[in-house]
């Protein structure tokens, strides 16, 4: 319980620190939304008028306090360009990005864990080499190149076997679940296969470490075969480590899918953020970045707590210190 | 369970770890296998259990009451392990699963070999914990919450929960202090004798061997150099190798 309270306090402090960094970083960037809105050749008076209308001429501390006060009441502000609520913009974009990440993570987990265990059990030299090459090559492929390869293979219209759409998301969104799901298959496969190859290497390496542990020999001495011991005991022992890796992977995917969203023309969080940043839509960008930062920190918090739950050794050592 | 090992050889790569080993254990007999570190003791016990490394090449015969272990398929060997052969390893903190409770660990052989209800398994675990002198409440704890002696008692309970016919104890006292060593050896001997099982007790310490076994084999560089009654081996070892081990044990006892 003390661990949880300590962790929540550090979460709040980190979030506050990040809010300052995000706010300051966006003010340092050259140019602002008033110039974008007024046009490059507009008179300075018009730009100043727009800045005053949007409150950008107020002192920076005042702007920061107003922004934070809004965040605390759940008001993430409105886009300076479109006037749309930032919350609704993010929710709309997240309805594409998060299913894509979850779908990609499921593929990565299935590929990574399945092939990781298979690679650990492989005895033939040829099979071992295959897994090694898959791990190295798969994990090294740039997302953009991997995505293009999948488009050339499986995209409708241009692919060798036209199975899935490769551009855009249906207008009606998840109101048309079949089409929405189909539009996420190739992007999710791209992130899933690449991260799955990395997860496979990690799983194989962690299982190789645990394979010679006394608890594996004990499990076999109790009556498991080598493969059963690896699956029932070895995997369970490395689960806390895998949770940490999956947590990092999940957080990284949020930013990693920016490239994928652009490649597959998906209007998700990543591509939206890039567009807003280009437009210097300060309120939208800073609130979006704050939500992303909060999400990263939340994933970290969740992984830390889950790690404690799954590994009793950490619980004991933590209690011992207090 | 009787054990008959004939001409056992174990080779890994170009290294011969064990050669020409003959060893017998009669029903209900407690036999010791002693030798210095690296003499091949543990490799022989692994050969009996089918737990040698993948790249080990075995020759000869290991007969466990009519079942040939050398060359047997993995499923046959896995069925023997835990059901008919109980194993106690050197370091209980390494051998007990760190992420499961002591109770779950102890009941594992029961879950793998017998169809029992959860309540029946829990009852057997409770009785086994009492037999090895542990409080029933320890069943819900994790290995890292136990002392060295408690952890080794839990490992003994795991090995004996199915009432196996042969116990292979591979240096079960090495990781313990001298008081816990004596307690664990006495406990093991009492439980093995009560159950009528046979035991192969592996150690490099003659003083422990004397308490645990009635007959012993001395191993050096993978070969048996002397065998006989443990008391005779201690009193008048006939080979220099056995003499060195006895001398070392006496020196340690005096210190």
From TrEMBL, chain A:
Residues 94-307 form the ABC transmembrane type-1 domain. This is ABC transporter, permease protein. It comes from Bifidobacterium bohemicum DSM 22767. InterPro entries: BPD_transp_1_N (IPR045621), MetI-like (IPR000515), MetI-like_sf (IPR035906). One of its GO terms (cellular component) is plasma membrane. Keywords: Cell membrane, Membrane, Transmembrane, Transmembrane helix, Transport. The keyword rRNA-binding does not apply. SUPFAM superfamilies: MetI-like (SSF161098). It is found in: Cell membrane. It is a multi-pass membrane protein. The chain crosses the membrane at residues 96-121, 133-154, 174-194, 245-269, 289-306. The keyword Hydrolase does not apply. PROSITE patterns: ABC_TM1 (PS50928). Belongs to the binding-protein-dependent transport system permease family. GO terms for molecular function: dipeptide transmembrane transporter activity.
UniProtKB/TrEMBL annotation, chain B:
Its EC number is 3.6.3.24. It holds the Pfam family ABC_tran. The keyword ATP-binding applies. Its main location: membrane. It is found in: Cell membrane. It comes from the Bacteria. InterPro entries: AAA+_ATPase, ABC_Ni/Peptide_Import, ABC_transporter-like_ATP-bd, ABC_transporter-like_CS, P-loop_NTPase. It is an enzyme of class 3 (hydrolase). It is a peripheral membrane protein. Residues 3-246 form the ABC transporter domain. One of its GO terms (molecular function) is ATP hydrolysis activity. The keyword RNA-binding does not apply. GO terms for cellular component: plasma membrane. Keywords: ATP-binding, Cell inner membrane, Cell membrane, Hydrolase, Membrane, Nucleotide-binding, Translocase, Transport. Belongs to the ABC transporter superfamily. This is ABC transporter, ATP-binding protein.
């Amino acid at each position: 319980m003390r661990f949880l309270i300590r962790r929540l306090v550090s979460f709040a402090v980190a979030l506050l620190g990040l809010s300052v960094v995000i706010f300051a970083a966006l003010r340092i960037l050259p140019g602002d939304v008033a110039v974008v809105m007024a046009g490059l050749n507009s008179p300075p008076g018009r730009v100043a008028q727009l800045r005053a209308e949007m409150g950008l001429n107020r002192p920076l501390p005042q702007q920061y306090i107003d922004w934070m006060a809004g965040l605390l009441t759940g008001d993430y502000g409105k886009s300076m360009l479109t006037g749309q609520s930032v919350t609704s913009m993010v929710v709309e974009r997240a309805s594409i990005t998060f299913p894509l990440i979850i779908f990609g993570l499921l593929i990565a987990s299935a590929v990574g864990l399945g092939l990781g265990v298979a690679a650990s059990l492989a005895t033939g030299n040829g099979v071992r080499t295959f897994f090694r090459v898959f791990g190295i090559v798969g994990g090294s492929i740039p997302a953009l190149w991997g995505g293009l390869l999948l488009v050339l293979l499986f995209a409708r219209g241009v692919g060798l076997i036209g199975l899935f759409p490769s551009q855009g998301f249906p207008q009606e969104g998840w109101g048309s679940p079949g089409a929405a799901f189909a539009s996420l298959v190739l992007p999710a496969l791209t992130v899933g296969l690449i991260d799955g190859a990395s997860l496979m290497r990690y799983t194989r390496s962690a299982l190789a470490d645990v394979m010679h542990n006394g608890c594996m020999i004990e499990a076999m001495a109790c009556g498991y075969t080598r493969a059963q011991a690896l699956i029932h005991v070895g995997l369970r022992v490395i689960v806390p480590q895998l949770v940490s890796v999956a947590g990092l992977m999940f957080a990284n995917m949020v930013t990693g899918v920016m490239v994928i969203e652009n490649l597959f023309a998906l209007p998700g969080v990543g591509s939206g953020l890039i567009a807003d940043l280009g437009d210097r839509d300060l309120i939208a960008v800073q609130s979006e970045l704050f939500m992303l930062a909060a999400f990263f920190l939340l994933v970290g918090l969740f992984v830390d707590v889950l790690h404690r739950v799954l590994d009793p050794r950490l619980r004991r050592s933590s209690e011992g210190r207090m | 369970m009787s054990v008959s090992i004939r001409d056992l050889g174990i080779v890994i790569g170009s290294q011969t770890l064990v050669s020409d080993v003959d060893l017998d254990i009669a029903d209900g007999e407690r036999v010791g296998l002693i030798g210095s570190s690296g003499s091949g003791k543990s490799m022989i016990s692994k050969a009996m259990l089918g737990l040698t490394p993948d790249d080990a090449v075995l020759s000869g015969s290991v007969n466990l009451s009519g079942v040939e272990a050398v060359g047997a398929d993995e499923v046959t060997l896995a069925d023997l392990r835990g059901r008919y052969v109980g194993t106690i390893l050197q370091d209980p903190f390494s051998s007990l699963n760190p992420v499961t409770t002591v109770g779950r660990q102890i009941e594992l052989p029961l879950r793998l070999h017998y169809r029992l209800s959860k309540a029946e398994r829990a009852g057997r675990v409770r009785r086994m914990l009492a037999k090895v002198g542990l409080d029933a409440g320890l069943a819900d704890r994790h290995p890292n919450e136990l002392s060295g002696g408690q952890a080794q008692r839990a490992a003994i309970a795991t090995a004996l929960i199915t009432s196996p016919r042969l116990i292979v104890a591979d240096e079960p006292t090495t990781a313990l202090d001298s008081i816990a060593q004596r307690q664990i050896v006495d406990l093991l001997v009492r439980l093995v004798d009560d159950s009528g099982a046979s035991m192969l007790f592996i150690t490099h310490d003659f003083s422990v061997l004397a308490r645990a076994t009635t007959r012993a084999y001395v191993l050096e560089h993978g070969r048996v150099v002397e065998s006989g009654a443990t008391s005779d081996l201690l009193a008048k070892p006939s080979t220099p190798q056995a003499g060195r081990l006895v001398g070392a044990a006496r020196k340690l006892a005096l210190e």
